[in-house]
Specification:
This protein is an alpha+beta fold. It has three helices and three strands; from the N terminus they run H-E-E-H-E-H. It has helices at about 1-10, 35-50, 75-80, and strands spanning about 15-20, 25-30, 55-60. Strands 1-2-3 form a three-stranded mixed beta sheet, sandwiched between helices. It is globular.
């Protein structure tokens, strides 16, 4: 998932992004200045060779963080998977 996050961060500098997933779905959580989720999804699917139906994007006001400032992936998994 780190690679997916890095792909998106390199292309879209004004967003924060976190990815979680399982065998059935990849969930991409974004916050920030996102112009087009559809374009992001298309570009990501092409870059990692995955079917669009397996990827779900969610926009949030702010990514959940731990007290140390790192992304709280456990909370994201509990909410979105």
């Amino acid at each position: 998932h780190d690679e997916i996050e890095n792909i998106l961060k390199l292309k879209y500098h004004d967003i924060d992004v976190a990815c979680v997933g399982n065998d059935a779905v990849l969930v991409v959580i974004c916050s920030g200045d996102v112009q087009s989720i559809s374009d992001m999804k298309d570009e990501l699917c092409k870059a990692i060779h995955i079917d669009k139906h397996c990827v779900h994007f969610e926009m949030v006001g702010r990514l959940p963080l731990l007290t140390n400032g790192k992304i709280d992936y456990k909370t994201i998994k509990n909410v979105y998977l």
